[in-house]
């Protein structure tokens, strides 16, 4: 009957904390208070513009695209040019505040 093989950790270096353990992934002795060093370029963020180096695009979010198309359609259907202007501004990536300004400008000029 074969016995399972045992893994033997390398000898503990001098000055290592008594409660340290050997990490077989990093091949280092680590104390329980050690934290993994993450390079500053790796923040784990998935949002563009979160100061992680990802470029911010002028493309509107999916939500703004849906709202923009809905406003544009409703504006054309009911003859409200300020709604059309708001929808077009959202689709152009101006954001909510830019869309509101665009709608107000059309209202003032009418």
Would you write up a description of this structure?
With 110 residues, this protein is mostly helical. The chain has three helices and two strands; from the N terminus they run ββααα. The chain has a two-stranded antiparallel ribbon with strand order 1-2. Helix 1 packs antiparallel against helix 2 and helix 2 runs antiparallel to helix 3. The protein is rod-shaped. The mean pLDDT is 80.
User: Helix/strand-derived class?
Assistant: mainly alpha
Strand order in the sheet with the most strands = 1-2
| Number of DSSP helical runs | 3
The largest pleated sheet is described as: 2 strands, antiparallel
**Global geometry:** rod-shaped
Gyration radius from CA atoms, angstroms: 29 Å
Contiguous low-pLDDT stretches (5 residues minimum) are: none
Write down how many β-strands occur, each being a DSSP E stretch of 2 or more residues.
2
Measure the end-to-end span: 93 Å
In N-to-C order, the SSE pattern is EEHHH
Task: Determine the fraction of residues in helical runs and give it as a percent range.
Answer: 25-40%
pLDDT averaged over residues:
80
Oligomer type: single chain
Residue fraction in strands: 5-15%
State the main characteristics.
2 strands; 110 residues; mainly alpha; 3 helices; two-stranded antiparallel ribbon
Nutshell version of this structure?
With 110 residues, the chain is mainly alpha-helical.
How do the helices and strands line up, and which of them pair or pack?
Blueprint: E1 21-23, E2 28-30, H1 62-78, H2 81-91, H3 95-109
Antiparallel strand pairs: 1-2
Helix pairs in contact: 1-2, 2-3
């Amino acid at each position: 009957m074969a016995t399972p093989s045992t893994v033997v950790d390398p000898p503990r270096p001098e000055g290592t904390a008594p409660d340290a353990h050997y990490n077989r992934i990093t091949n280092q002795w680590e104390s329980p208070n050690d934290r993994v060093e993450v390079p500053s370029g790796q923040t784990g963020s998935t949002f563009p513009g979160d100061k992680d180096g990802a470029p911010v695009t002028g493309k509107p979010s999916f939500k703004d695209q849906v709202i923009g198309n809905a406003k544009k359609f409703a504006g054309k259907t009911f003859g409200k040019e300020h709604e059309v202007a708001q929808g077009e501004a959202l689709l152009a990536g101006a954001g909510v505040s830019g869309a509101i300004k665009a709608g107000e400008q059309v209202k003032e000029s009418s």
